[in-house]
Amino acid sequence: MQIQNKQAIRKIGKPRLLIVGCGDVGMRMLPLLRDRYRVFAVTTQADRMAELRAAGATPILANLDHPAEAARLARLAPTVLHLAPPQAEGQIDRRTRHLTAILPDHTLLVYVSTSGVYGDCGGALIDETRAVRPHNARAIRRVDAERTLRRWARRSGSRLAIVRVPGIYAQNRLPEERLRKGTPALVESDDVFTNHIHADDLARIVIAAMRRAQPLRVYHAVDDSDMKMGAYFDVVADALQLPRPPRLPRTDLQHQVTPAMLSFMAESRRLANRRLKTELGVRLHYSTVQHGLQKIVKTAPSR
């Protein structure tokens, strides 16, 4: 009984931290946070409560779509990691607006956004000073979230960092089904540059932003890869010992992929990661997609 009481006292004495939207990346953060923080993890799914508790978090059942439920999060923690995506429709992010309405002044918040806010950059290498030009509703909602958070941070005297994230990959986040179906990719002349980050590195980047980011600063969470989308599918296919996808011109491919996939194939950009390394001091565990796939194949269970 005395041991249990001492453990409870140690837990209560830790600084409090709130993860909003504790999905795959949030779960990867928990082992890096739970020994130093009392972590509250928000989920909308009651059947995930036990999983979050077992991972070392205090689960909170709340849905940011409902202001009354968002209010449960008020003053839970002075540090917030906001990983929840916007709702699936509209041009504003109501979830982020509901969250900022209940957060106290002088909160430290890291928001995980998307590189889609830039729209198509024609394959140019860009840094975080590039103006946003969202081309689809998903990205428009993300820009609304970023602007909402900036206004809130200035008004409340809070500290905000925005982490813009490209395509996330990991052992459980590879386009294996797409490759097995033989869904075509673009021919080289029509193809677009894409950007990538391993989910484990992303978890570490968000924590580094929490600890070392400059106020109201944007960071690219991206590795050192320089590759087009078709090349990404090819290296994943090779790693999984699957056939490489066929290649088609854009005019033919648009009839064989979903509108959502086609929208990704319409934007080409390369993200610079100098700030990630010089300001946040991050050393990537998986510097390129090829490096990450080597580790994935090495540690994957036999098929």
Automatic annotation (TrEMBL):
Residues 99-213 form the NAD-dependent epimerase/dehydratase domain. Coiled coil: none annotated. It holds the Pfam family Epimerase. It comes from the Bacteria. SUPFAM superfamilies: NAD(P)-binding Rossmann-fold domains. GO terms for molecular function: aldehyde dehydrogenase (NAD+) activity. GO terms for cellular component: cytoplasm. This is NAD-dependent dehydratase. The lineage of its organism: Bacteria, Pseudomonadati, Pseudomonadota, Betaproteobacteria, Burkholderiales.
